[in-house]
Design a protein that fits this description.
about 220 residues; mainly alpha; 11 helices; about 70% helix; globular; binds SN-glycerol-3-phosphate
């Protein structure tokens, strides 16, 4: 249990580094007060431009990979099997991103960091949510809708991978650990959906911002 807690804390420290918020601060723009008020890449792109949005997406995703690799590098000296600790590092990163202590625990919605979680821990799980996300955003131009259904598909596919005994998952996690991993994946997915509550309201009332690369039509 100590190992799991330490892994979560390490992940949390990486997760708290919010690139969009920092870029905004450097330009005297507080992302929590403009656009959707979110510090993620969508709102960064909306208010600070495409390059800033892409850098935010890249870092918010990469920080999870960095945290997972960091935990693997440090923990393998003490534990024979570090896989479960790496998952906890990923969980910690998402929590750090969503609830950074220096921002009164009000951070992002965890979509890019969940993508980093999937890339770092379950690369086999990347294609389905990615295709779903891109497809939905291309058709509807609602990033939030793509994000919500994308993260939901991640939890669903993980359950299917476990039930179908997909080796890249079940070779690393069995029994109680596999259940733990599935609970974490479902939690990460549910958390991101819950954090989209304002987007869900706007989607239902038809007021959600549509994505655009062109500043003049950006909401
Ligand atoms: O990743 C967040 C995205 O799904 C929605 O962003 O700024 O429109 O709330 P935003």
């Amino acid at each position: 249990i100590i190992g799991r807690i330490v892994a979560v804390i390490i992940g949390y420290c990486f997760g708290m580094i919010l690139m969009g918020y920092l870029i905004g601060k450097s330009k005297n723009i507080d992302l929590t007060k403009v656009g959707s008020g979110n510090v993620g890449s969508t709102n960064t792109m909306r208010n600070l431009g495409v390059p800033a949005g892409l850098i935010t997406l890249l870092w918010d995703c990469t920080k999870c990979i960095v945290a997972v690799v960091f935990v693997w590098l440090t923990f393998h000296r003490f534990f024979e099997d570090t896989n479960i600790y790496m998952v906890y590092a990923g969980l910690g990163t998402v929590l750090g991103h969503d609830f950074p202590c220096y921002m009164h625990f009000k951070g992002g919605k965890g979509v890019a960091s969940t993508l980093g979680f999937i890339i770092a821990l379950f690369p086999i799980g990347v294609p389905i949510p990615a295709v779903i996300f891109i497809g939905i955003v291309a058709i509807t131009r609602y990033v939030s809708l793509g994000s919500i259904i994308g993260v939901l598909s991640f939890a669903a596919e993980m359950i299917v991978f476990a039930l179908c005994d997909v080796k890249s998952v079940t070779d690393r996690f069995q029994g109680r650990e596999l259940t733990e991993v599935l609970v974490i994946c479902c939690f990460v997915s549910a958390l991101s959906i819950a954090l989209h509550h304002a987007n869900i309201k706007r989607l239902l009332s038809g007021n959600e911002n549509k994505f655009s690369f062109h500043p003049e039509t950006r909401a």
